[in-house]
Design goal:
Blueprint lengths: L13 E2 L5 E2 L1 H27 L1 H8 L5 H14 L4 H14 L2 H19 L5 H4 L2 H31 L5 H5 L1 H23 L2 H6 L4 H4 L1 H13 L5 H9 L6 H8 L1 H32 L4 H29 L1 H23 L4 H19 L2 H8 L5 H17 L2 H12 L4 H18 L13
Helix pairs in contact: 1-5, 1-7, 1-9, 1-12, 2-3, 3-21, 4-5, 4-7, 4-20, 5-7, 5-12, 7-19, 7-20, 9-16, 15-16, 15-18, 15-20, 15-21, 15-22, 16-17, 16-18, 17-18, 17-22, 19-20
Amino acid sequence: MTNLPSQADIVGQTRTNGGPAVDPQVRRRVIGASFIGNFVEWFDYAVYGYLAATIAVVFFPEADPQTALLSTFALFAISFLVRPMGGFIWGHIGDRVGRKNALSLSILIMSLSTFCIALIPGYDAIGLWAPALLLIVRVVQGFSASGEYAGASAFLVEYAPAHRRGLYAAVVPASTATGLLLGSLLAAGLTGLLSEDQLHSWGWRLPFLLAAPMGLIGRYIRTKLEDTPAFRELEVEEHSEAAPVKSLLLNHWRQLLLAVGAVLLNAVGFYVILSYMPTYLSEELGLGTTESYLATTIALLTYIGFIFGTGMLSDRFGRKKVLISASLLFVALTVPAFMLLETGSFLVIVLVQVLLGGMLTLNDGTLPSFLAEMFPTKIRYSGFAVSFNLSNALFGGTAPFVATLLISLSGNALAPAWYLGAAALVSLVAVALSRETSRMPLQHQ
């Protein structure tokens, strides 16, 4: 946590984005609660991706390995289809009832649904009911996750000093990556320490069992916070939007479309580079499972280190310049980077993943503040949640499935790289057409 905003940044009773004064002690609690809560949510959500190959054997044992893996990633993708609906619902709750209430409820739902995955019997015990129950729980997970990233980002941006919104919002992707990191470490430990039979019979369930206690701790911390000064000011002035989603679709549809496009690189890049990569390295390139997890773990560590730097860069140079730089780098370097992965050298693979992760931080560390600033306070949660979850539903959750399918259809292991480069190109256009927001006060309309 040493890279978080320092006492010098928040000394004294400062005013947040032109709003009410905020005690520095409160800001520190907000940072901690946002980090821990988002960390718990995304650890829960990421474990499924890291253990996909094992889950495929447990729930689809009668299929050939590639079909089983496709089926597992199809469940991963289907759970994302509920996320746009979740974005509408969580956005309404967050803009009408409050950011804190939405975040406290979402983490509870996520933790309980993840815990339930550990209790589902395998295909050998209950047949087709096993994947059916897994699908139901994954859908609940997707609904919960649709309110987390947007809510935590809005929460931090509305508490942040005006000149540090990018740095504060970078806490969200950093905590997300930390959740992925723990998931990767656990997956690597389980595959390294347990036999294949032990992993398939009970070992894969252990990370999911951790969800309940971690989620309850995160929820407790969140319930002890006040809602953001910006939201409380809307309540006092009675300026809150009665139908925030309707206002978003009628009055801010252009910002919504640009936001969906801007999220595309994050959606595809995040799941290809940080979630799907261990499976890609082991199943497509033949790298050992433990080595695949270890390479991704190292990349995640550097990603977390880079992310706060990109938040600060966006505060200094503007959101658009940093986001455009990320898109250009991915358009130019993704295919060559994936070609280097095919060398099979563990050192080269680690360096390539560190490079890709560093490029991704330019997008991920800037995107939360960029999206939060695109929409006025009274519809901020809705605007962020709908755009972020719509893009992730269409392109993020489907990325592992599409990558695996493209390789199967084309016979070319570089197919995911071309897909990621195309996503970067779309994001480049969307960001270029958007306005710069880093120097503007948060809108109170």
